[in-house]
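During the second year of the project, the team shifted from modelling isolated chains to modelling whole assemblies. The rationale, set out in the original proposal, was that interfaces cannot be judged from single-chain predictions alone. As a representative example for this report, we include one of the complexes processed in the last quarter. Its constituent sequences, exactly as entered into the pipeline, are reproduced here:
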Amino acid sequence: MGVYIHWPFCVSKCPYCDFNSHVYGSIDQEQWIAAYIKSLEHYAELLPDKQVISIFFGGGTPSLMSGKSVAAIIDTVQRLWSVANDLEITLEANPTSVEISKFKSFKDAGVNRISIGVQAFNNDDLKFLGRGHDVSDSLRAIEIASSMFERYSFDLIYARPQQSLGAWEVELKDALKYAKGHLSLYQLSIEKGTPFYKRHNSGEFAIPDEVQGADFYHLTQDIMEDAGLPAYEVSNHAQAGQECRHNLIYWNMADYIGVGAGAHGRFMMGEDKYASKDNHIPDKWLKDVTHKLEKLSAEDRFIEDVMMGLRLRDGISIKRCEDVLDIDKLADICAQDWAQLNGDNLSLTREGLLRLNAIIPYILK
Ligand SMILES: C[S@@+](CC[C@H](N)C(=O)[O-])C[C@H]1O[C@@H](n2cnc3c(N)ncnc32)[C@H](O)[C@@H]1O
Ligand code: SF4
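Output from the structure prediction step:
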């Protein structure tokens, strides 16, 4: 089982981001950590026999937590469950000087993988993205992470306004010099309810259209394949063996619990699979950390298997999901070269992954 810990606080809100993150004046970490521990204890009563293979601190900005808070949560997980020998413990970090100075305390707490929100190697674009760091901060964060952690990754956002394909090619190839085994590369998406949504709609800036977006995507795949870090999921690239195990839990629909405002989980209890979603308002979550569970029907489960599994290069077993798949339509997408069938395994090609959001509703019965 994976354990996802959501820390829903940020120093400021980036104008493109629709993650459940909030800006609070001050946070009493001890009070919040007590709530996380209580919530984990609640799960341990429900799921005493699971073995934990991964802990992931996501956000928001979990690098705003103190080393002591992170340690308290890791210790609690280890007290409540048996854990794998090679337990993966990832923490998402923003590359500001304050947060970089805490890397050592995160390592001492047990974190063994850091994922850094670099976003761009271009100061003008970092400003446009509303980031509180510049390129030199990112390089410093990467340098410290590489000296301290065996595994680290960083995130970049591409297909930015005004960005040319040529500029992205130079930037990504440059970024690869600093990468070690894993990179997450996201095309900028304009999300409803964000400041970028309004600004984009009012014509203040434009992002690449679908055709240009596809060119960015193919260029990215070509560069990453040549570099030996092919995509193992739509936006995640790794050398063989360096995939984020926690991410793979989501896409393989294995068990995970989610703790923290807005966090969700999926896990088997007995023969049944359950979904959880914590209250997304931090203050409400703090007052009541118990979980609302919903039993998933067999159909819901298979639909989720298809939606998550097809994001992966390795695809899905058709037999497992045949009740919800339209077999004639699978033949159509294979004929278009958007998917390939190898025995029981269905996986999308690169062209198919580009059309993922259209293909999934098409092939579901
Ligand atoms: C939970 S977020 C952030 C982690 C950390 N707080 C940070 O900002 O560095 C995970 C990643 O999603 C990506 N992301 C968030 N919103 C996005 C958007 N609208 N378009 C593309 N990528 C986005 C960013 O690369 C970000 O690092
Ligand atoms: S991108 Fe990261 S730092 Fe920015 S608001 Fe979202 S979660 Fe917070």
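Residues 310-365 form one domain. The CA atoms of residues 311 and 356 lie 8 Å apart.
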